[in-house]
Amino acid sequence: KDTFAFITTRAGGLYVVNIANPNNPQIVANENSFTWLMDIIIKENIAFVTNYDPGDTAGLIAYDISDPLHPQVISYIGGNVRRGMKIFIKDTLAYIGARYYGFYIVNIADPRNMRLLSQATEFLDVQRVNVVNFGDTLYAFVSDIYGLGIYDVSDPQNPQLINQLNIRSTATYIDRTNRKLYDQALAGAVLFDLTYPYNPQLINYYIYLGNPYYLTVKDTFAYLYDGYGILRILDISQPNNITEIAYYDRYLESIPSNTLGADIGGIFYSNNYIYLVVRGFPWFCYLAIVDVSNPRNPQWVGTKMWRGYAGGNQFYVEDTIVFFPLASEGRTTTLKILNVADPQRIRALGEYFWQTWVAMEITKYDTILFMAGGYDPWGGTQPLQRDLGILNVRDLTYPVLITEYSTPNQCRGVDCFRYLPIIAVADWAAGVHTIDISNPASPQIIGTVDLEANIEDVHIGRELIFVGNGYQFTALKTDMGQNLRLYGYYDMLSKFGYGGVTTDVWSAGDEYGYGTTYGGFFIYYTGLSEIKEANDFRKKTHLKINTAGEYFITIYDANGRIVFKEKQYLKENSVINLPFLKSGLYFLKIKGKEEIQRKMVIVR
Any idea where the Secretion system C-terminal sorting domain is (predicted)? Predict the structure, then answer.
């Protein structure tokens, strides 16, 4: 509230922290009349706090916080209100989930005289309650690990159970406009149609695949590591009907016999191949290449092994060239540059030794390679920690260091706009920065958005930058890389309960973002359509391509400046997607291995 944070604790009561200076928060008050505090909602100058104390002293407490330096307990309600978990407030009523005791409805119109109106006990292990009105009827959706209850609570003194769904619910999110119910269950995610709350209709469900992370998406397929040693391939052509179509675990056959443990440490897609980093102990690492031209039948095609370790979704593939940073003993990262034109005979082209712990992520713009090296097990106190290594890799045999750029905190992730000399970095505790790299020797921060949680991964769509920050999946908006600002976010914790920390993010444009958490794989709809503006010329552009393959697409304006640059896989008689551009004269250049085409494009 304002410049104060109110924090509930299990042992210390209620703390008040002055956050006027986010770089130097100060505890300014502590009210410890009650302990084992759980959830808190602030309404005007009153903080309503639930209490999980096994006793019956107080299940709901009201604090007067009009003076944040001196919070005061003004009332509490106990006796039959106990073991308070999550609280939901609508108008003058509080709905409290209570473990072992169902849920309570409490009148809080007068915070100094709160009154219990009713208690529903059909469900006894209630995690939280979500209340919405459809028309003139008020419904409560009660999340219990043994089922999801739907109540008519139009009469708060007499809640009526109208339906029970057999799912192990921990939290729900209600789309009021479209009458959809999204449920986070212990074993998966479930979607219901609530057009008729008395008779919900199952639309879709998805069972979690372990604790997935490391994610890449191509066309209508998602490739992710499930946390238990298996590459999973999902068909996401219908966002409401995600299905697993194949899995791959043959890479395990190449692990040395004396291995203590091994897993996948990164995934990258390029030209019908999935590249996997496989790492394990004692200190080995190898690159496995899997042919996914038929995603339903992945096939191993090549392996290259080294002594060392790789951590993070950190390597980069362009055409037949792989940039692969390997953490070695002695706090050195060796950047290996490989030719994988023949996956069964991987050849080394060059290498570069960088004095840092490990490169967490890599991206490339033109001939410039960017390595995020801001990881330090000792919290950024070691002299060998670097933030951003910038290399010229025009000569793949002898890469040259241009500069080492220090970001404000610890650079953990990096990605670039394919058509602009601008990169985005995940700077751990200092937010997301956009950086102008038109002069790679002197990068300049041009935008920053500071987010609440630590940030370890970023991915750029077209105009949106997708970020994984703690329990949130966040989208930041730009205007051709400029004017970085918050576009929206999805809070996994508040909307889905224990949805897990966002571990990896990806996108295939701006309309949909993809993310993994320790609880599953999610698709997020941004509402930002590919064709957004009235004067958008992103019509379907047909090209006659004789040979299918990867092509570099570049658009120049009338002054010869590059306004769009991207690599796309084109088939014969392809349809390509072009970005939003202002009206004017442009030149389109398509360059592939066998041909170069130029076409003048007029935007009207």
Answer: 544-602
